[in-house]
Structure to design on (230 residues):
């Protein structure tokens, strides 16, 4: 099966500019996640969608970050305006529920953002 | 709330030596446990998972991990490493249930030297 697709792979912007990242999950996966991975740290969940509804966005900085998942498939994560501390890799993942009830995530290659 | 502690930020080993990467977790509910590997400039790839059943879990690339409930640990092991195992390894935990989020540790950089 095709994996999780993300674009762009790399983006360099100046602070206060805006940027958008796109994610296409594995076909049939109802749950989609955006994680932020700052250099030297583990990934941190920003937002989780179940179909096109938000399940958890408690760690999303809503004053500058927004995300949507139209029609329950593709998703876009936007940052406006960007700050220096937003430099990170943005990972998209999707999952289908296992028989056990667990969500096992499959990750995309990530989008690396550098804010100058 | 749940959390993961990876006790070593870096582990250097020689090729063909055994390795253990340590992971401890805390959670107030039953858990699912995972190890992911991240090669440079790539996303995370699932190595293995514990969902239920046998506490010894085997994964890809010859890795295995043992779930120890009393010690709240899920250490990753490989009896003989290769140069190609050099990567960042992340332990992760989620509560049992579809809406529990996956929480990651800070990662352990495994460097295999010739």
């Amino acid at each position: 099966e095709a994996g999780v697709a993300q674009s762009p792979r790399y983006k360099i912007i100046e602070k206060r500019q805006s940027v958008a990242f796109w994610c296409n999950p594995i076909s049939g996966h109802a749950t989609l996640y955006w994680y932020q991975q700052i250099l030297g740290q583990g990934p941190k969940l920003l937002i989780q969608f179940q179909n096109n509804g938000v399940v958890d966005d408690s760690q999303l900085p809503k004053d500058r970050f927004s995300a949507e998942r139209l029609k329950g498939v593709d998703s876009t994560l936007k940052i406006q305006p960007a700050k220096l501390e937003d430099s990170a890799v943005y990972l998209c993942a999707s999952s289908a529920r296992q028989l056990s009830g667990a969500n096992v995530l499959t990750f995309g290659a990530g989008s690396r953002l550098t804010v100058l | 709330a749940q959390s993961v502690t990876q006790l070593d930020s870096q582990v250097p080993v020689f090729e063909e030596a055994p390795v253990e990467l340590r992971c401890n977790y805390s959670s107030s509910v039953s858990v699912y446990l995972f190890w992911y590997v991240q090669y440079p400039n790539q996303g995370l790839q699932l190595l293995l998972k514990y969902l239920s059943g046998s506490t010894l879990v085997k994964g890809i690339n010859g890795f295995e991990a043992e779930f120890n409930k009393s010690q709240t640990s899920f250490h990753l092991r490989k009896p003989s490493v290769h140069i190609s195992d050099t990567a960042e390894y992340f332990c992760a935990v989620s509560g049992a249930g579809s809406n529990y989020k996956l929480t990651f540790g800070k990662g352990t950089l495994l460097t295999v030297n010739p």
The domain at 5-10+18-95 of chain A is CATH 2.60.40.10 (Immunoglobulin-like). Chain A touches chain B at residues 4, 6, 31, 33, 40-45, 48, 50, 55-56, 91, 93, 97-98, 100-110, 112 (CB under 8 Å). The mean pLDDT of chain A is 92.
